[in-house]
Amino acid sequence: MAGMKSMNTSAPQPPPLPIDPSLAAEQQQAHQALIQQLQGQAQQDTASIMARYGISLGLAGANAGSPLVHASYVGGR
Amino acid sequence: MGAVQQIPPGSEPDEWFLAFHRKCDSKIISFLSFGEFKHVLAFGYCPGLKVWLVFDVTWKKTWIRLLSHEQGAIEQLAEMTRNCAIVAAASAGRTPPLITRIGYFCVPAVISLLGLGCVAITPTGLYRYLLKNGGYEINEHVSSAAAAVAD
Questions:
Q1: What is the secondary structure of B44-100 as a DSSP string?
Q2: Residue B150: inside a domain
Q3: Domain count within chain B
Q4: In terms of CB atoms within 10 Å, which of A75, B44, B54, B58 comes out highest?
Q5: Which residue in the set A19, A26, A57 is minimally distant from B149, CB to CB?
Q6: pTM over 0.80
Q7: pLDDT at residue A3 in the model
Q8: Residue A16 included in any domain
Q9: Which one of B15, B139, B145 has the shortest CB-CB distance to A42?
Q10: Between chains, do A27 and B45 touch, taking CB under 8 Å as contact?
Q11: Which of A2-16, B10-24, B79-93 shows the lowest per-residue confidence on average (mean pLDDT)?
């Protein structure tokens, strides 16, 4: 128990290291690549589901701000 | 302390991506996780090491994976998170509330990882908290109904 009492559960945090601009730029690029991949995949998945199950199901619960939803609504009318 | 200060910058993510799954393997967990989402995992980029770190606390075990950015990590992550809602959120650096220390499952683990001050106990609760506190969904094209059908 003595060990438990001396255990430090909230260790002091080291001061934040200065941000390296090259690392920040690389992180930005990696994040952008990921976001493009995920958004492209999401668009493909939604489009294939719409083609397979119908537009109404694909639209159910979708975000109203999505350009895909707008395009589908226009196409559906 | 000295050892901590020698950790090079960029060796841990400062922004995380949380993948909210609409299904999970365990029927019990699926039942207990009220709401749309049943599981959450986190991944982030370490620019100093050029790897993506994946942190996934499941009922079976805790997975920590490193995926090389230069060897197809993006495609692997996209496949791992297919039909998930992906929310981007920065590390908050706060001490999580005491109640989140009760139990060890995906939600309190992710709260601790990001240093969030929220008391969510379900993935859906965490999802809502993040969207109200600076997080943003990056793949909102997939509707919940469509994703459910795809699963």
A1: EEETTTTEEEEEEE-SS-EEEEEEEGGGTHHHHHHHHTTT-EEEEEE---PPPPGGG
A2: no
A3: 1
A4: B44
A5: A57
A6: no
A7: 41
A8: no
A9: B139
A10: yes
A11: A2-16
